[in-house]
Amino acid sequence: MQSLPPFLFLFFFFFLLLLSSFLSPSLSSHESDDIEFWCSNTPHPEPCRYYLGRNPYLGAPKDKAQFYKLSLRLALDLTLRAQSHLKRSGPACRRSPEKTAWLDCWKLYANTVLQLNRTLAPPPGAGCTAFDYQTWLSAALTNLQTCPKGFRDTRASAELIGPVVRYNVSDLVSNCLAINRPAAADADRGRFSSWTTFGTRRLLQLSAAADVVVAEDGSGNFRTIKEALDAASKRMQSTRGSKFVIHIKAGVYNEYLQVVSSLSNIVMVGDGIGKTIITGSRSVANGYTTLSSATFSVFGDGFVASGITMSRRVKWPGYHVVRRPSIMRPFTVGRFIAGGSWIPSTGVPFNPSL
């Protein structure tokens, strides 16, 4: 039997090699299939496919836990990019309302970076659970959705915030919330959440343990809550990590308060719902953004409050009842904080839509 000529042997060899390349899937197509599978199970598959497919350094997820980590890293990476873009757009804000909206966004994105970082790398020894991660991710999502609203409130040019919003970070964080959906509801259905330590519960129940007392009639250490928070800030410079308890006596406190990121473990105890009242009258109609109009906002870790009414029914100029579903729908629990992806696991009853 005659052997094949050398050139025919080489021809058949390369033909078989080429054929095998078509019949067997390559590594890249295998990774693409994995990304498609995982992303198709998220609330926002399109940005998931787009960004994961264009970030080869992340690799293809092998299981749900790895997919969750990759999604978090991707959300953080894009948040940092959006924040960088936001920084460059600052000088373009010329009107005072635009500058206020821009500053709000800068604070909100900085806090979002903090929330995503702590979700990716929880504090060692803190015993964090999936519920903690959901809380941090929910805060991040609320930040991201509050930012552009401030620009809409001030009727600023869409060119100022449009490039930042186009990173779709909100969709990616919503995906993380859905992936991290806890398997079981919190076992503690009592008055306090399970993450509230026994010591904190006692502090909330015993106002006598307060570090300072606020009373509008002058019978306490301070007349305003703002003064008490300033005192807490000074105290925490020397006693970082310890709780600072503020007892707020019955009264109406017309103040605008913010527990900043550097103020951690603040505990506020009022004299009861409807007795200790913190109220304000700022609104978008009066020229404020959504964030700057808040009567009370919290960025610091470990904040707990009890026995306080944070606001009254608003009556300021510009307030009106909204009856159009198209206006109300973006602010429902399901849309605004992606409640459908995580609230069911807590056992708290809610309505995701109108």
TrEMBL record:
Gene Ontology BP, a term: cell wall modification
Gene Ontology MF, one: pectinesterase activity
UniProt domain Pectinesterase inhibitor: residue ranges: 30-179
Name of a matching Pfam family: Pectinesterase
InterPro entries, per database record: Invertase/methylesterase_inhib (IPR035513), Pectin_lyas_fold (IPR012334), Pectin_lyase_fold/virulence (IPR011050), Pectinesterase_cat (IPR000070), Pectinesterase_inhib_dom (IPR006501)
Family note: In the C-terminal section; belongs to the pectinesterase family.
The protein's name in its UniProt record: Pectinesterase inhibitor domain-containing protein
Keyword annotations of the record: Aspartyl esterase, Hydrolase, Signal
Signal peptide interval: 1-28
Pathway: Glycan metabolism; pectin degradation; 2-dehydro-3-deoxy-D-gluconate from pectin: step 1/5
